[in-house]
Amino acid sequence: MKKIVDDRRTIYRCCKMYYEMEMGQQEIADSLAISRATVSKMLKLGKEMGIVSIQVINPGDFLPNDLEEKMMKLFHLKDVVIVEDSPLETRDEFVHKLAVRTVHLIRDYIHEDDVIGVSMGKTLHDICHCQTEEIEPVKCTFVPVVGGVLSGLRDAENNNSNRIAADMAEVFGGEYAELFSPAMFSNREVMEGFLQENAIKNIFRYYRRMSMVIMGIGIPNRGASIMVKAGYIKTEELDNLVDKGLVGDLSLQFFDEDGNTEKFSDYNCRVAGMPLSQIAQINTRIAIAARGISQAKALYAAVKRGFVNVLVLDQIMATQLIQWKELEDRGEK
After folding, report:
1. Fewer CB in 10 Å around end: N or C, the chain?
2. Is the pLDDT confidence value at 280 over 50?
3. Same domain, 257 and 115
């Protein structure tokens, strides 16, 4: 006797009801006078027999491509967004693409009542101010992970963490808190006393609830270093740190090519905000690197050490990171 699960006509009817008529499995079972388990088997057989063909279509630039998938696998990352960079594009054109991709990525990870940390810098500022389509508001709170006062540095006033938190809140329709503290202190004891003030301690309560942090990558460029311009460190000191192996910073905290921070502890311990060791424990840690191979070493180190697990970067830098990783895995780097 022929089994009902071998009846091609019934399998077809079952698949049609489920995929085209959008009936539930129990509803189909009742209609065909069969069990729900049989419906499930028939739906599976429908795909195996070619009665049902399911195609997954990438709707645009917002799902992982092969290069992004390769980076996720190689570096054990949670997500990667690679923005194609053309030499014919202006910086503004590239930043606009970067902003659109970054905003969509962040929106995918934000949930109601989340606390989201932000660092500082021009890249984050540009992302907030590039025109993108309107985003559905999310009830969340953006909080600086580094002090928002840059010692009166006027040309960076729009790039400080407090301003970034406010701008992010405007883009996503959330709220924000401010950290009214210098980004770095000249004396650790003075900083620790200052951070005990009740007005400041409120910010640190947010840190315990933080589910995501969004950061730019800093590099030791003496001509463009915010820390040098703000007077937190002298150019000679920065040069000495480079000689010690400094390759970059996250939230103004230095690390070497292996992501180690110990040799820079005299500086890092005076940065007001969330320590890198604590940042590394946040569930989603997004780093954004905008159009510059010079950031590749810093980004590579940050990924290796686990300071970040989600990347937004250009294609040239992504290719470089993959080459280094493959060389390292073969013992050639």
Report:
1. N
2. yes
3. yes
